[in-house]
Amino acid sequence: MIKQLWPFRKDPHVQFEALLSPHLDKLYRLAYRLSGQRDTAEDLVQELLLKVYPRLDEMQQIEQLAPWLSKILYRQFIDQYRRQKRSPLDYTDDDKTLYDSSASNALDPAEVSNNDLIATLLDQALNRLNEDQRSLVMLHDAEGYTLQEISELLEIPVGTIKSRLSRARSQLREILQSMEPDASAQRVNKQEGL
Predict the structure, then answer these.
(1) Between 33 and which of 123, 138, 144, 194 could a Cys-Cys bridge form, CB atoms 3.0 to 4.6 Å apart?
(2) Entry pTM
(3) Cα(150)–Cα(128) distance, rounded to whole angstroms?
(4) Cα separation of 140 and 145, whole Å?
(5) What is the per-residue pLDDT for 36?
């Protein structure tokens, strides 16, 4: 029976699928968190698969395949982002955002409404960060990559990652505070001494 299965184990399609299958969910989540759009995330993962398929022999030699694949995916995203920035076309998508899809399914309408509001505010705040800041926050805080993994992924020293992540979180905090409904009234009251 082993001799019958052996030819299938040599099939590059089967080897490729076996090698990449454990990483597809994480790659899709990363692509979705970076792009915020389902179609774009699917395209990024598909482009990644097409790009790495000819490199099957090289992938079989890599001990930790997930960071290597994530690095390629991130670079593809950056390249696509830069191309879109140069293009005069509008690449907006009406799909639900990541935060809309993660809203609680609680039965209490007030909680659902509050979660939707928080998700919308967070999504808007993240979109106001520059691309580097948003990527760092998404990689570390949303996807759970360690500082060392991000350092390897972006080829930036860990200390630089720490300081940039700190600045990004600070900027996000400021943006969220400025978006609070009472924030403008509080600033006016402070200026008038009330």
Answers:
(1) 138
(2) 0.54
(3) 22
(4) 5
(5) 79
